[in-house]
Amino acid sequence: DDYITKPFSPGELVARIKAHLRRYKHFSQHKVEEEDQIIQCKGLKLDVKRYELYVKGEKVNLSATEFKLLHLLLSNKGQVFSKEQLYEKVWGYNDYGDINTVTVYMSKIRDKIETESTKPQYIQTVWGVGYKFNDSV
């Protein structure tokens, strides 16, 4: 995001590199502070820093992908995400997998956090659109 024309002095190059490093450190530090949190919601406790989930006080093991999906939904309660959006945010642009992978992972998460996975209390399906974390919980 920077351009320097020739001829340039080594001092200017060093100054620009230092400026980029300052910005990088500032934004990286912000991300670390953001991740140093615990999200709680009626029976669920998601410790983002430790990658741990507790359901009604009991630790539940999640894979890294399951954790990312749950964290995304919990951080945006009530917001509906399409399968495509979830796939893009969790797996990224460079992954060329099947979009139905999202459905499989949602089922796995529900099995681990819901009392009855057939009557989900936390993660709800919005038919024809995608998924959301129930904001009334």
Strand order of the largest sheet: 1-2-3-4
Q: Using only CA atoms, what is the Rg?
A: 20 Å
In helices, the fraction of residues equals 40-55%
The biggest beta sheet reads: 4 strands, antiparallel
Structural class call reads: alpha+beta
Provide the β-strand percentage band.
15-25%
Number of domains: 2
Order of helices and strands: HEEEEHEHHEE
Write a concise synopsis of the structure shown:
By secondary structure, the chain is an alpha+beta fold.
Key terms:
4 helices; elongated; 2 domains; 137 residues; Arc Repressor Mutant, subunit A; alpha+beta; three-stranded antiparallel beta sheet; single chain; 44% helix; four-stranded antiparallel beta sheet
Characterization of the model:
With 137 residues, this protein is of the alpha+beta class. The chain folds into two domains: 1-36; 38-133, Winged helix-like DNA-binding domain superfamily/Winged helix DNA-binding domain (Arc Repressor Mutant, subunit A), CATH 1.10.10.10. The protein is 44% helix and 18% strand. It contains four helices and seven strands. Strands 1-2-3-4 form a four-stranded antiparallel sheet, covered by helices on one side. A hairpin with a 2-residue loop joins strand 3 (52-55) and strand 4 (58-60). The model has no long low-confidence stretch (mean pLDDT 85).
